[in-house]
Amino acid sequence: MILGDSSPNDGSDEAINGAGLYIHVPFCRSKCAYCAFPSTTLFPLERRQAWQAAVLSELAKELTQDKTGCWPLFTTLYVGGGTPSLLLPDELSNLLLAVKPVLHPQAEITLEANPESLSESWLKVAQDHGVTRLSLGIQSFDAQVRQAVGRLSSQRDLERARNLLENVWHGQFSLDLILGLPFQTPERQLKDAQIALSWQAHHLSAYPLSWEKGTLLTKKFRESEAQDLAWDEIRTLWQENGYDWYEVANFARQGAQCQHNRGYWEQRPYLGLGSGAVTTYPVQHSATGEVFWRRRTFGTDPTLFSTQQEIEILTPRDCRKEALLLGLRLSTGLSRAQWERCSALPWEQVLSDTLQRFASWFQDTYHTLTLKPEVRCWQDELLRQAFAELDVDESRR
Length: 397
Ligand code: SF4
Known about the structure:
Layout lengths: L18 E7 L19 H20 L9 E8 L7 H11 L3 E11 L6 H9 L4 E7 L3 H6 L6 H13 L4 E8 L6 H13 L4 E6 L7 H5 L10 H10 L3 E4 L2 E3 L6 H7 L4 E4 L4 E8 L5 E8 L10 E6 L1 H12 L6 E2 H7 L4 H4 L1 H6 L4 E3 L3 E4 L8 H17 L1
Parallel strand pairs: 1-2, 1-9, 2-3, 3-4, 4-5, 5-6
Antiparallel strand pairs: 6-8, 7-8, 10-11, 11-12, 13-15, 14-15
Helix pairs in contact: 2-3, 6-8, 10-14
The chain binds iron/sulfur cluster.
């Protein structure tokens, strides 16, 4: 393994830091208005079987031809979508059994689920196969808001899901909200955040609504109608109730951070399988020891995704930009070790103007580059200046 090592998960938030595996389940009962993820509402048995065969065959191909030196063993698995809770219990069982040999014995395993398709038998299969956390897509507890964007779950579905989590599920779970949906005024956003607290989740996330081109949302609503965000109030509420604000949109109780997503933010290698899935890993070093990365994005066809691929090579400068973009989102900031993988020169030298101009924004620039909490959500101006400085630095080399 090139980056990080795979030490057993001792329950702390830093224990596991190897490569990640992502599997995209491309099936949804209907299309939510804001959603730009690749998914299909047509998934008869043959198509589901063809999808699983394609995913497993691509995994086998990756492992036998492994040119990365990064896999296996994967220290995290994230099964997302789409709607993984639409897989039948048998299908879920087959998938988890098939990938088990490539997972670290103490890997973090996350499944995404939607409240309306969560079932006792599906949860029991997940539990029996060592799934450690669920990520439940609530988006909003407000029925009018959910209806406006085509979410299928009823109030009764939410209550049923809550009962299943309380009475059947023994692992960790996250509730995922979106902020700023149509009709979701700041007061309603805060109400959503309060209800989320009452579920006693291990992890909470709240992403601002993203107005993606070509979605139903942009056809039905004007972006100028976007709601203000109750961001400061929600952050305060959740932090006061014992959740650590560890990433701009993510909050966790002790030991419940999502290690898989930390892998993205800390630029660890990951293998993505399924439509639209992305794979990124280091491929070579420059003369100064800086790393080039290779990024592959699969096509959007649910079963023929691997026949359409786009490859991109990320230069060390691209990686430096990503390191800043991702690392500054974390409460622990961008580490020097991460920076040194993509830059032979220290940030004091490469980003001197930015660090001087924005000095009051940082709480640490010595061991890490860490922003103060009050500016962590407002980085655009800082990043614009930093990227411009990185471009000038590149042209001088
Ligand atoms: S269920 Fe999730 S993946 Fe499917 S359409 Fe809705 S938001 Fe997109």
